[in-house]
Amino acid sequence: MEKLFKRQLLVLLCSAGLLGGCASTYEDGLSALQDGEPAKAQEIWLELAEEGNVDAMYGIYDLASSRYNRVSDSDIEWLKKAADAGMAKAQYQYGLITFNDKQFSKGHQYIKQAATQGQPEAIKFVERYKPTLKTFLSAEKGNRVAEYNLGVHYANGTQGLNKNSKEAASWYLKSAKQGYASAQNNLGIMYEEGKGVTKNATEAVKWYQKAADQGLASAQFNLGDLYEKGRGVRRDYRKAVELYMKAAEQGLAGAQNQLGNLYLDGKGVKKDGKKALEWHTKSANQNLAAGQYNLGQSYYFGYAGTVDKKAAAYWFKQAALQGHVSAQGNMGVLYSNGEGVEQNYQQAVKWLTKAAEQGNSNAQYVLGNRYYNGEGVNKSLSSAAKWYGKAAKQGHVDAQFKYANSYAFGDGNTKSNRTAFTWYKKAAEQGHTTSQYNLGVMYDNGEGTAEDNQAAFNWYSKAAKSDHASAQNNLGLLYKKGQGVKKNYAWAAYWFAKSAKQGNKLAKNNIKDALAKLNKFKTNASTVNILSATNTNSNVVKKLSKGTYVYSLGSNETWTEVLDINNYTLGYVKSDQLVKNVPVKPKKTAQVSYDPYPAKPRAKAGFVTCNTKCTNGNCYRTYSDGRKVHFQAKQKWNAFTSQFEWDSGGC
């Protein structure tokens, strides 16, 4: 107490200027710092530090670190002196700096000294790094295995280390340069994924190759994957097969699975479903979810020659239990259909929901069906529409159609022809036949879009060519009325017949008016074959007896395209086997031609001349030099007639 009193008195006397020759104290530096004069504090502490004041030594470092946020070598040297003088917090700070500078042994010694004095941060550090201390010390000496292990710990955030990809890559590089295969492989992964280093597939190939050359299966697999995908190296399926085979023969499940895929697709190796099954089985037996899923696919579709739905269900379930999304979706479908398992809509909904919630579009679509039909779940049109929408937005064509329906009919969504039109169009553009027909109807009637007969004709045509009966009937009507296309009763009859043959009652009625405008013939031979094409070797569609009446859709000297109203049969007969029964009437233009190419034009010196013959955009051209070309004309808008016309271009 007496000493403390004397010191306090000394400070007061010096402060009051009543005592001459007073030296500055550490507290003077603190006062200057509090007064906003860090430079003065630094000056005071530097003078005291040179006199051996430990607090001042630490203060110099602390000021640079906390106030200026920059530390010089001189600042660190003062910190070391404070640490060497026994100050615990200086020992910890200096030890930490040294440890982070990869001088692990030296740094740990200082931190351990601080911990011995009870410094809290030092105690925590010693405990935290206890599991990896030996590894750090070995790595400091250049042990490549220790360097690799540090990389693993930093990459995964294990053994008390914070996850740090940059540190991981740094340690992998040290080990890889010493030829350690596992480090080379992991460094390749870092370059491939761009973790801790700049993404660089070429560098990934380099390091994978080094490890693969040492026989490391995982590196062989990773390198094979880059060859298969053509990343960092030119795509080479054969090289991929070679590398996968090496890894697969060492038992690597991923390589076995990929090898099975290449056998299945015939890439880099002869297509072989049995070989694919063999490798997928090896992979599946090692519990690889992707291998189990692919094995299920092989059994379901019979890629190896035998369909086995029970085996497919078994392997799909094994993969599904591991969270494989597509396998979960497939289990939902199998339970829905009772394939390989007993039909169970509750189980179907369970698996479909798991997959759907992870974004599997097919599962979302099928789950929508379950809600729409109330199978395995309470019927809910709004839930059905929700799942249809999720799948539709991922491009699932059937879901796009169902989602459009939900707006067209107000099933689970507010009725909106415009929104329905949008989704029908998306599905139609992917080739969905009924959507193409519906889109044609909307253009035809101006529902959800402006009325457009030309667009209606185009979409009806697409659906009609896919045998959509209603589209065929509506297409016939457009030809009959001359809406969106030039009026043509032969084409009208053709499409009405196609539709009527499928049982469409409207088409059966509509065809009557079209037939009244066509030429009627009767057969003049004892047996007349209606053929599928203008070729005597083509299939016989129907045999006609003598005196049977048919309608002509188009003809030339050799062949006539006919319609037999009985069963609405369409095909071709020899023209000389028919006798005209009624006066000439309009024909379906250019349906048949023995030689579709026009005659060769007369040559003109210095010019290229040609003759061109087109039917609905299908063009044949003969040049003056004898060349013959078959091509498709382009559609061109005619502003005067307000419709599209075929443009075959010049010679």
UniProtKB/TrEMBL annotation:
Highest taxon of source: Bacteria
Pfam families (alphabetical): Sel1
InterPro entries: ISR_Activator, Sel1-like, TPR-like_helical_dom_sf
PANTHER family: DAP3-BINDING CELL DEATH ENHANCER 1 (PTHR45011:SF1)
Name used for this protein in its record: Sel1 repeat family protein
Native species: Photobacterium swingsii
Lineage: Bacteria, Pseudomonadati, Pseudomonadota, Gammaproteobacteria, Vibrionales
